[in-house]
What we know:
9 strands, 20% strand
Amino acid sequence: MGGYAAVVLAGGAARRMGGADKPTLTVAGQSMLTRVLAAVHDADPRVVVGRVPPDLPVQVHSTREDPPGSGPVAATAAGLALVPDDVSYTALLAADLPLLTGEAIDVLRLTAESAPMQGAVYRDAEGRRQMLCGVWRTAALRQALAGVLEERGSLDGASVRELMNHLRVAEVSWRRPGPPPWFDCDTDDDLRTAEEWAR
Length: 199
């Protein structure tokens, strides 16, 4: 596989967790953001959209959506602005996926590179696409952002679903033992579940 970039969305209000700085919360002794970045250790560049803690143990590029708090699609655009045009593929990931692994990313990358689609995401057991756990053709992601902008006049407040309406996606099932790599932590209970799985 050739090189790829990673854009990690680390904003969001975490309302169901009392407004906590969710990416900095720890699972098995490491922040969720650190764990996601470890899964894409071979990506170049690695871009974090949101606050980067001063003690983050790895080097990343950082940026913010404009205006701050304008949502995941605006954040995606801000992150992609730091990805060079010659990078063919970009992983687009939420920062609250503490069980994500390099193997899970490799499966998405292989699918994205071999399928006649514009990207690949995981599909859970209920058939839902995990849209912030995917790998995309970088050019297609840029075109989709342009399409949303043309439709709405602004990316402010646009939903990931609106972005995905402009993309053809391959859906991938996770068939290996262990927890699903797309498991995200939206509540304190989710965090406890992730901690148990990560032991």
